[in-house]
Amino acid sequence: MQPATRQAGKGGLRHQGRRTATASLGQSLLRRLNQLLINKAMIEIPPKFAGMPPVNPEARSKKQLIARQWG
Q: How many folded domains does the chain comprise?
C-alpha cells in the first residue's frame, strides 16, 4: 500500500493515518517548518516512548508521575 503524501498543515491527514493504522507521510515547505516539527512531536515521537518508565529518578522510586502534595 502506498502511503498518502500531502503537505503538512494541522496534521489532520497524519492523525487519520494513525487512527486507521495506515502509513501516512507529511511533507512541508521550509516556511512551514514549525508545523512539521509540531506534527512530528504530536504524532511520531510519543509512540516511541509508550510504556516506558519515567526518566526522573524520584518519580521512578515513588512510582507516580505527579506529586500528591502541592507545596
A: 1
